[in-house]
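Subgroup meeting minutes
Present: P.N., E.W., G.H.
Scribe: E.W.

1. P.N. recapped why we're keeping a running log of single-chain structure predictions: easier to compare across weeks, and new members can see raw inputs and outputs side by side.
2. G.H. added today's entry (125 aa).
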Amino acid sequence: MPILILIIVSALSQMMVSNPPYSLSHRASVGHTHRRLTETLNVPYYVGEHFTEEYTGMNLKNVERSVEDDYIANLRNNCWKEKQQKEGLLYRARYFGDSDLYQRAQKMGTPSCTRLSEVQASLHG
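Output recorded in log:
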């Protein structure tokens, strides 16, 4: 009996969760194939065929705010990963006295961090 209740609760929770109306990448499997750009940050995102009919005015602004929030969260996460990778290489280079690895680590870029700084400057500047 408890297992049946667990299955029913799980099934109900699955039905209540809806897919977002957009994706940050092209996802034909869920119908997000039409590319758009947000008005504020020009973030590319993908929507379904009937998106423009269903989302207008404040609804569209709310979706675009969510798109930009997700985009910024992804940039923050990727920036953190890039910094960790760079710091790890620098640490290994110092530990093993490898000057070539040290130079390579010093030159390693952090493109997500750069883009995040640009986005933050455009929002607050």
